[in-house]
Amino acid sequence: MKAGPSPEEIRRHNLGTLLRFVHLRGPASRAVLAESLGLNRSTIMALTADLTAAGLVREELPRSPGRRAGRPSLVVRPESTRVYVLAFDVGVDRLVVARVGLGGTVLARRSTDLPRGDVDPGDLVGALASSARALVRKAGRDAVCVGAALGFPGIVRRADGRIIFGPNIHLHDLDLGTALARRLGLGVPVRVANDADLGALAEHERGTGMGCDNLVYLHGDVGIGGGIIVGGRLLGGEEGFGGEIGHMVVNPNGRACACGARGCLDAEVGEPTLLDYAGRVQAPGQAGREAVRAVVDAADRGDAEAREALHRVGTWLGFAVANLVNIFNPAMVVFGGTLRDVYLGSAAQVRSMVATSALAAPRDRVKLRTAELGDDAPLIGAAEFAFTDLLADPLQVPARLREAEETPVS
Amino acid sequence: MPATPVLELRGVDKSFGPVKVLHDVSFTAHAGEVTALVGDNGAGKTTLVKGIGGVHAFDRGVYRFDGRPVRPRSPRDAAALGIEIVHQDLALCENLDIVENMFLGRERSHGIALDEAAMEEAAAATLSRLSVRTVGSVRRRVSELSGGQRQTVAIARAALWDSRLVVLDEPSAALGVAQTQQVLELVRRLADRGLAVVLISHNMNDVFAVSDRVAALYLGRTVAQVRTADVTHRQVVELITSGRSGDLGPRA
Amino acid sequence: MSTDLPKSEKPAVKFAAGDFAGDRPPGDMRSAALDAWQRVRSGDLGATPAILGLLGLIVLFTALRPETFLSKGNIANLFTQALPITILAMGLVFVLLLGEIDLSAGVASGVCAAVMAKLLVDAGQPWYVAVLAAVAVGIVIGTALGAFVALVRIPSFVVSLALFLGLQGITLRLIGEGGTVPVRDDVINALANKNMPVGLGWALAAAVIVGYAATEFLRWRGQHARGLAARPIQFVGARVGVVTLAVLGGTYLLSQDRAPGPIVLAGVPWGVLLVAVLLIICTFVLGRTRYGRHVYAVGGNAEAARRAGINVTRIRVSVFMIASTLAAISGIVAASRLSSVATNSGAGNTLLYAVGAAVIGGTSLFGGRGKARDAVLGGLVIAVIDNGLGLLGTKAYLNFLITGVVLLLAASIDATARRRRSEMGR
């Protein structure tokens, strides 16, 4: 039998919990921290001192002197401009790179258009690395990068972050994380995860799903991705390939999907299908999300063809949601990316299908919501993912980085 | 679901002279929920809302707020109870800025001078609580804002006070798609923050996108009040146009 | 990725500058400049046209009459000339803010002055009784006017036109046809004709500057400390700088000996102090009190104000009362300047000059926009035109024509700006 946790482990855990609290919930006074974390004030003081020494938080007077009752108590604030991560979102037709500070502040971002179709892995790494370097250069001298993570629209193995398959970006079996980490040379690994999984994480921690431990997130980019959170944890399955809602078959006699099957959700409600139904040809250079929004816009103005297209797509989306509701009994289903627009433009159809196809018991309480973080959900999720190491052991990461700095890189 | 609805109307009648506009209307709105009020033009939606907001009194019937019988005689009475109505024309002063509009008629002061700092802080806090990031500075004049931004300000004003019930009359009429979506999401967040929200809309997608319940009026009568999760588009449209749909609607 | 944190309401993602304009750091010079430009583009010109016009006119008349226009005597004369117009205009600003008009304010000032003169001369009352009576008459006129507009709902244009005619009759009755009543009271006459000691003038000027600078900087610091929307400190500094220059310049010019003979005649006229005090009070009332906020609200959208629980009727009546009260004070100052009250006091173009002053200063004829300082700026413009044309010796018909053109110009700027605003809105 394993002995209880050592004092060192408890301290590490408490440091992580405190840092995580100010990271997710914003600046807080010691009193609030003590009450929220269930620790006494002297412990809080010691923990804060450690985190301050490591340069992760600072204590200062609250911004507003405000109501003149008594001496204002000090507020523990994350060092959001000095401690940051790099978040990468690889979309089918664009790349976004952001520098995100501790506390979740997007400090700077760059996005680049990506031509659709075959992508050379070397070019992809090069484009991501050069954007990232431009962002790092603009950071202050005393700022330190404590992690990096990347969201990818495809099948990613959780154990090592290896990209197994990208249906809409033609990449196979690629260790993008290691390649990118080497090019960046910042001494931090680049974690890789499925973009919709990251979106689910972001909406769960910072978006509309805050406080909701059972949610399903559906992300539309070109295809459809999904992330499922059960009991506060992201569902992955045996190897982390789980949650691919986009490849749930909703229509066995349906359209061919890039994955090889027929009638996947991806094939029935994805962007090419919607545009096809609406009789639109994507203008060259127009991003997919704009084309989708144009269809919703036209439908709202009374364009019959666009309405019909949304109606058909909404039917399949409704089927999918009904199935998900039956299987997972989520408290919330969140529509992000282009699905936000598709859902709002076809909500009557989607909910009608849910009303007729889902079981009454799980259907009764489920909330259908749009993503509060919009298109940025995967990006914000990547940032949260990148902070994982730091939050698990707050003092170790800065120490390691400092060591690396002192020993010259060969 | 809380046992007591925030708003409960039962057997409400209202006539203007010989014209009977509302006949035995029942309607409830629960905290944390968006209740969509649908019906054709002339079904009595506006009259119902005006009655709720104290613009005119109902002739007969039960009006309970938080379980207590009430009888608001003016919009002021209604506001004192925690009822805010956002009319279609918004009622904003274009020459004033966002903060000034949000506090109009209920300004905070410090002696005889206005306490601008406190009002600005409270307005900014309300907007950020509702995740409104689209209006720019809170000191922008309303005349500089777009239609959707104005709608946002009008709704946020209703949420600034300790309101319990917010009624929105066609908030997305005359807005573009992107702005409509923002307004719908704002409507949803109001309810998620525990307010009871009543949404009047003609757009079925809007109704289904944000509502938890749908109440349908037909020729001055409530023909159904059902959970949105239990009905289909076709059923709601039938209720609006013919007053009944299968099992739903009054038995003949 | 477990979340075992207590769930509390709070911030979703915070975005840095650039993502959303609303989250930019307060006091950023570039965005403030952009804001200002945006305002100008959307037709919110503020005091700019009036200040530019004033400077342009001064340069013009100095060039045409270099030896007389900027002479010390003429400057002092110019200031006292502007006094009655400015005070009358300040009252009209309140009425114009509601989008109403008071055509009777000029003759109301005449009636009040006549009442004062009669009490001083015929009844032998002390000056303060006469002044109080004049102000009381002003309040009564304003209440009656406001009641007809707000309660009986007759357009203010019609009610005040009726009063314009009727009140002239009362002045005529009080003073007698073609007559004048001389005002010999020392206190009254001192108002426009006597100056305060030079030292006191400088002391008050210093107090005004220090007070203004302190209010502005304290407000800026408060906003900055609490993270509120604040203009950059450079803007605040520039404003304080301009006001300081104007006050010091004016005081300097008025503190020079302007008497042609050996007797020293110098100092700021008492009437200027009166205008300064009225300006501070009106600015405070309009800008910093609940009442002022409600005046703007009713002027901007009366229906919205009514729904917000503002007593629109009371606000309507009150602005007419304020306008007539200030008209009474204006009448007293005018009587002081001429040392007499005549049957045509406050008649003729007095009112049009005052409306012109307010509009030239930047107050909108359509309601909802305007400030007390507009009256001062516009009053100076009108006085400069009147005074300058007088020095040029132009014919009377030309004076009327030119003043009319200037008023038309100001109203056009106002109307164009208003159109731009409504175009920019959506």
**Order of secondary-structure elements of chain C:** HHHHHHHEHHHHHHHEHHH
Low-confidence stretches of chain A: 65-69
Strand order of the largest sheet of chain A: 6-5-4-7-11
Radius of gyration from the alpha-carbon trace of chain C, in angstroms = 24 Å
The main β sheet of chain A shows up as: 5 strands, mixed
CATH topology label of the largest domain in chain A:
Nucleotidyltransferase, domain 5
SS strand fraction of chain A: 15-25%
Instruction: Give the class of chain C from helix and strand content and strand pairing.
Output: mainly alpha
Q: Based on Cα principal axes, name the global outline of chain C.
A: globular
Number of strand segments of chain A: 16
- Give average pLDDT of chain C, whole number: 84
Low-confidence runs of chain C (pLDDT<50, min 5 residues)? 1-27
Helicity of chain A, in percent?
40-55%
Largest sheet of chain C: 2 strands, antiparallel
User: Number of helical runs of chain A?
Assistant: 15
How many separate domains make up the residues of chain A?
A: 3
- C-alpha-based Rg of chain A, rounded: 23 Å
- How many helices of chain C? The count is 17
CATH architecture label name of the largest domain in chain A: 2-Layer Sandwich
| Euclidean distance between termini CA atoms of chain C | 45 Å
How does this model look, in words?
The complex is a heterotrimer of chains A (410), B (252) and C (426). In chain A, 44% of the residues lie in helices and 20% in strands. With 410 residues, chain A is of the alpha/beta class. Chain A has 3 domains: 7-78, Arc Repressor Mutant, subunit A, CATH 1.10.10.10; 83-197 and 378-406, Nucleotidyltransferase, domain 5 (2-Layer Sandwich), CATH 3.30.420; 208-371, Nucleotidyltransferase, domain 5, CATH 3.30.420.40. A 5-stranded mixed β-sheet of chain A has the order 6-5-4-7-11, with helices on both faces. In chain A, strands 14-13-12-15-16 form a 5-stranded mixed β-sheet, with helices on both faces. In chain A, β9 and β10 form a beta hairpin. Chain B has 8 helices and 12 strands. Chain B has helices at 45-52, 75-81, 98-102, 116-129, 147-160, 177-192, 204-210, 233-242, and strands at residues 7-16, 19-29, 34-39, 60-65, 68-69, 83-86, 109-110, 113-114, 165-169, 196-200, 213-218, 221-227. In chain B, α5 packs parallel to α6 (177-192). Chain C contains 17 helices and 2 strands. Chain C has helices at 29-41, 48-64, 66-69, 72-97, 105-121, 127-150, 156-175, 186-193, 198-225, 233-254, 270-288, 290-300, 302-307, 312-338, 350-361, 372-392, 396-425; strands spanning 180-182, 340-342. At the A-B interface, α9, α11, α12 and β16 of A face α6, α7 and α8 of B.
